[in-house]
Amino acid sequence: MTTQKDQTAASRRQFLTGAAVAATGAATLGFPAIVKAQGPITMRWQSTWPAKDIFHEYANDFAKKVNDMTGGALRIEVLPAGAVVPAFGLLDAVSKGTLDGGHGVLVYHYGKQNALALWGSGPAFGMDANMLLAWHKYGGGKELLNKLYASIGANVVSFPYGPMPTQPLGWFKKPITKAEDLKGLKFRTVGISIDVFTAMGAAVNALPGGEIVPAMDRGLLDAAEFNNATSDRILGFPDVSKVMMLQSYHQNAEQFEIMFNKAKFDALPGAMKSIIENAVEAASADMSWKAVDRYSKDHAELVAKDKVRMFKTPDSILQQQLSAYDAAAAKRKDNAMFNEIADSQKNFAARAVKWDLETNVSRAMAYRHYFAAKPAEKKA
Q: Is the pLDDT of residue 29 over 50?
């Protein structure tokens, strides 16, 4: 005899079985179907970084997030700088389809349109890198970047991400105590910072990250800047210099760029595009957290193990950087895109930086309270 309890249990089993079948059917309509029908979609990428640099690690971190989140339906392989094209050739290679995508920084494309420097080199009107990303997403930057890339015929889909901490002034043979100390130095930088340091008297040479230390070792450069304690340490800066000048306005608000060939990206299923867009933001947060951990460790190791002497860049030099940047920007008055982007950033910064300065408490006071020391105040 079948009881009411037996009937209820049977109904429940039928419901669960049906739900499982429905779920399986729905799944086969998505990424597993792609894999089963044609195999995974594969993409060959290149970064603009040497394989040993933490920046290349960030590129692989993003690729792994996408590969994992799509269940292997999309597989991105990231090659290091120079594997297919030179670091500064990434935009052309992705645009033409020689590469399916890449990882770098917008300022490396400065030669194509110098307005791209506004996503990384310069004082950003007082914004830090995270604020600049906020402007990009919510203040009109995304639309302006699309317009800029269209104006130079770049067949790419770009995702700026990954806020970088303020970059050092650079590595020198001796401490820099005044702006005049920069005059005549053979110095490496990129983007509109080329104009800033040139105006301050340096003889500037733009080189990719992997070429800087060898150039310093051969005497082709007297001084250089790259990015952060970890990258600089990995790339060997302490082997060619023992003086690091901290804090600068030349690149205090930079971020990375994830770039896809537009035709390749547009051909992806809609759900896969959504995964990529969300993976960009997940990778951006993860990169910023990893940077705090790794950079702070290597910052300490530079002093303790590599015997590097660190000095805060004098305020007089920082002020002259701002003036030099203003002069460099004024020379671009005929570049409509440059001025449109700069005006948009300035309008956003006027309220965002004011809010930040008036809202957030000083970390220096708390640091002095707990550690009885004042950070970044050593004078040259």
A: no
